[in-house]
Structure formats: C-alpha cells, structure tokens
Specification:
Layout: E1 18-23, H1 24-49, H2 58-63, H3 77-104, H4 109-128, H5 131-134, E2 155-156, E3 162-163, H6 173-203, H7 205-209, H8 213-241, H9 259-271, H10 273-276, H11 279-283, E4 293-299, E5 309-310, H12 312-332, H13 342-345, H14 348-352, H15 359-388, H16 393-408, H17 420-438, H18 443-462, H19 467-477, H20 479-482, E6 489-495, H21 513-522
Antiparallel strand pairs: 1-4, 2-3, 4-6, 5-6
Helix pairs in contact: 1-3, 3-4, 4-6, 6-8, 8-9, 12-15, 12-19, 15-16, 16-17, 18-19
Length: 532
C-alpha cells in the first residue's frame, strides 16, 4: 500500500467527523446493571413504602412461594420498577440494533435477512414486556385495608405453605386471569431471549473454533447449562399458566393429564430451574468478545466508504408522530368518551390510553417512540457538532431533558399515578426550547410555531370539544415542518474488531473511477481485499 501513488487532486481536505465506538460487552454490562439495580430499588421500596403483606399478596397466593415479580406489583414501588425496567428494555433493543448493524457490515444478504427476522421478533417481544406493568393485580389498591384487599383470607399449613383448598378461601377467577396474563408477557419475553441467544451463539462459531480445546469445552458446557435453564424455566412457566388455576392447588399434589407436562414439572422440580433459569438471559450477551462492537463515523459530505445519509429532524418527527398516532387511536378504544366529568375531559386522551385492552398496544408503542426520540436527539446533536465544529452543550442538556420528560409520560399507563402532568409540561417546554435552539437563524418561525401550540393547548384546557385534542395531535405531528432540515449527515459503519482506526479514512476521494479504486485499495470495505 505504501507503493501506491495517489494523485494530490484525488482527495479533499480531511473532513470534520464525529466517531462513536460501541462495544457489545459494555452495553451488555449496562443491561445487567440496570436490571439488578431496578430489582434492588423496587424491592426496597416494596418492603418500606407499600402495603405489601405476605399473607395477602396475590402472587404468593398463586404460586405458593415468593416470586421477585412481587416487586413490580405494588404502588409506588411499581412506578420505580417500571422506570428502571423501561430503560432495561431500551438498552436491550439498542443492543439488538447494534447486532443488526454488525451483521450488515459483513455484507451477507441472506444472513442479514435472517438477522432482521430474528431481531424484529425479539424487539417486538421486548417492547411487549412493559405490559407486565400495564396489568394491574390490585385495582382496589386505594382500599388497602378494605375486605377486598384480603382476598377472602389465607391459611398457612404447618410447613408454612399457603393453603387455598377451601372454596371460600380460593382466589377469584378474575384474579387468576390477571396473573396468567401478567405471567404471559414474561414468558413471551423469555422465549424471545432464548431465540436471541441461539442467534448470538451462531454468530460466535468462527471465534470459538479459534480457541484452545479447554476453553471451547468450558464455553460449550456453560452454554449448554444456560440453554437448559432457559428452556426448562420457560416450559415450566407455560405449564403453570395453561392450568387456569393457582399453582399451589396442584403442584406436588396432583398428577397432570399430560405426560409431557408431568415430565416438565418433574425436571423443573429436581433442577430448580425456575429459581435460576432466568439468569442466563442476563449473562449471554456478556459472552461476546471484548473487542467486538460497532464504530459509527459521521460526516457532512459523502465518501466512497459511507453507508448513506440520515436526516436527524425526521427521527424526532417520527417519534412525535408515533406518539400522536397512539393518542389518536386511544380515543377510538374509549367506550365512555362522552360521559367523562369536566375535570377528566381535560385529559381525555391520557385516560384513553390507560383503558384495556388498548393499553397493551399503547405502552409498547409509546416505549418504542422513546427510542426514536433518543436516536433523533443524538443525531441532531451530532449534526450540530459537525456544523458548529464545537460541542453544543446547551442543545445536549435540553435534549436530555426532552428525552426523560417524554419517557416519564409512559408512567401514565399506571392506574395509580397522579403526577405525569409534570412530565407532560416539561416535555412541552423542552421541545419549545429545542425548536428555538434549532431555529436560531430564523426565530420568527419558532415564535409562530410556539404561539400556535400555546393557543391549541389553551383551547384543549378550556373547551371540551373532542376535535381540539386532535388539533393538538396534528400540531405535534407537524414538527418536521417547523425546524430547519440542515445538511445531510453521512454515516460510515465499521466493525471494531476489524479495523485500525488510525488509518487515514477521513479523506474523501473524488468521484473519478480511478481515484475510487485507489482509495478502496488503501482502505478496503469490510471483508474485501481489492488488488490493483
């Protein structure tokens, strides 16, 4: 490569660029840390700030034993758990997106098609996991000390086991159905992680083959134990929910009508897979090589090596348009739209998205819009950094506030919450400031858009006609029209384990075929070696 004489006119001056390196193992560690931190905080809150009682808890009454999901059920610990688990889901989706980009750089079309099918399924199930919090096991939580909270009483045997043998002491069918639905979302998420683990294991085969025999043996034993735990745990949970009655009524007491189900229960009983089968879900992502990841390089001009361009303002606009669509559909599912009180009518769409069954669609969709907002804000900051040639600190700070404010509104799906109006106001204010920051060269455009928004909000607050709500949603969806498009941002994708980043890739060749060929010889695309 040193012998190649490149003409001086073949390259421009080095371009301003922004580069991110994301490593799979680092994101996986953040994924695990978020999960365990959330569990710890929610557990502390459950035992210190809720009316949790082992004798009246529905999960204990259903399973006959303690279950960590108890920490997700009692308010206000439920709000803490949902906040943390939402970030847990977002980090998992971002890890899957990194995996897709990593496969894209390998330039294997059919492999990428299979990757897209797997990761789209996994992402859908990840998003649905938030519905663990949408299901409400205690709709009468306000009557904490009332008779309905006691579920007709509980008896404990000599060995400390919960007894529900008497008909008058059993859970209602409504309680059983809610717990089964609650558990079903967890099982779907668990099966999706099993699919993802299988795919990730397939991507590591070429690396495992290069290891020594002892290291390969330890790896295969570890993966075999992990897959065994996940499969048995998921199968045992499926057996439990298909019985349509509390586990405590039949587990270790009655023989099931299916020999396969009896075998699953037997294996789960003797291996205690239900106690540890979820742990491999947290850990299999960490098994990726320490140097494996993705490098994103952003520029304002196209190069031969780039992978296309992106318009950041469209990503923020897609987020707001998806939120508007979710809120618009919520009113369609509201059966008692015209019977709301004057106070409730001010928050018509907020109440609409909490109604079941639409909440099971709205919660995952809204969480997905938060990811679009995160991507859009990041790309906008990168664009401004490239244009200004310095870090836009104020824009970055406001972007963080806008994201967390929008994300905080997700808590409105909890039946007990009464504080999300603060997140809504904060999100409106931060987005107005955001628009002014992007329209610094044309403030009149920002002022006009802000005045229209304030006028629509005043009409929503003072008038009860339903069309004012949809006028506000149209206003939200028009965001791309009120901010400057700015220059396209061109992105180059590389695998961190394949390239030396000190290679001179910042130069952009001219469009002549000979210059392009010489450039590709010096800096070949991933997986290619071009000989002159």
């Amino acid at each position: 490569r040193e012998d190649i004489a490149l003409p001086p006119a073949a390259f421009e001056q080095p371009l301003e660029r922004v580069r991110f390196r994301l490593y799979f193992r680092h994101v996986a560690r953040l994924y695990c840390a978020t999960f365990f931190t959330t569990m710890l905080c929610a557990g502390i809150a459950t035992f210190t700030s809720t009316h949790y009682d082992q004798g009246t808890d529905k999960i204990i009454m259903f399973y006959g034993m303690f279950n960590p999901c108890i920490w997700f059920d009692h308010y206000p610990a439920k709000a803490i758990a949902m906040t943390g688990m939402g970030f847990f889901i977002i980090i998992g989706v971002l890890w899957s997106m990194m995996l897709f980009v990593h496969e894209y750089t390998k330039e294997r079309v059919f492999r990428m098609m299979w990757c897209a099918a797997v990761l789209s399924t996994v992402t859908f199930c990840d998003m649905a996991f938030v519905n663990v919090f949408t299901t409400n096991l205690y709709p009468d939580e306000a009557l904490r000390d009332g008779p309905s909270r006691r579920l007709h009483g509980v008896h404990f045997g000599a060995d400390g086991a919960v007894s529900l043998m008497e008909e008058s002491m059993s859970m209602s069918q409504a309680d059983v159905r809610v717990i089964i639905l609650h558990t079903s979302f967890y099982i779907v998420w668990l099966l999706a992680q099993l699919l993802l683990a299988s795919f990730v294991m397939g991507t590591q085969k070429h690396i495992v083959r290069s290891w020594g025999q002892g290291k390969r043996l330890r790896y295969h034993i570890l993966m075999a134990v992990g897959f065994f735990g996940m499969v048995v745990h998921a199968a045992a949970m499926l057996v439990i929910i298909v019985q349509n009655k509390p586990k405590v009524d039949w587990y270790k007491k009655n023989t099931l009508a299916s020999s396969i189900q009896n075998f699953v229960v037997f294996v789960d009983m003797w291996t205690y897979a239900s106690a540890w089968g979820w742990v491999p879900v947290m850990l299999f992502r960490i098994l990726t090589p320490v140097d494996e990841g993705i490098c994103f390089t952003f520029r304002l001009a196209d190069t031969v090596a780039d992978d296309g361009f992106v318009s950041p303002h469209l990503w923020v606009g897609r987020c707001l348009q998806l939120v508007a669509l979710v809120l618009a559909c919520g009113a369609v599912f509201q059966k008692e739209l015209d019977s709301q009180s004057p106070q409730q009518s001010k928050y018509l769409l907020r109440y609409a998205i909490t109604s079941k069954p639409f909440a099971y669609i709205a919660a995952p969709a809204y969480l997905g819009s938060s990811i679009l907002m995160l991507v859009g804000i990041t790309l906008t900051v990168v664009q401004r950094r490239l244009v200004m040639r310095r870090n836009p600190h104020c824009l970055m700070l406001n972007g963080v506030v806008a994201f967390f404010s929008l994300y905080g509104c997700l808590l409105s799906i909890l039946d007990e919450e009464n504080f999300c109006w603060m997140f809504f106001i904060a999100s409106c204010v931060s987005m107005i400031v955001w628009i002014f920051q992007l329209n610094h060269k044309s403030p009149l455009n920002a002022v006009s858009f802000t005045l229209v928004g304030v006028a629509v909000l005043l009409c929503v607050n003072s008038l009860t006609a339903w069309w004012w709500y949809y006028a506000f949603l149209l206003y939200m969806a028009s965001y791309p029209l009120c901010v400057p498009e700015g220059p396209h941002v061109y992105v180059t994708l590389e695998r961190t384990e394949e390239y030396d980043y000190d290679v001179a890739r910042s130069a952009s060749p001219v469009t002549s075929p000979s210059a392009k060929l010489q450039y590709e010889v010096m800096c070949p695309p991933p997986g290619k070696a071009i000989h002159p």
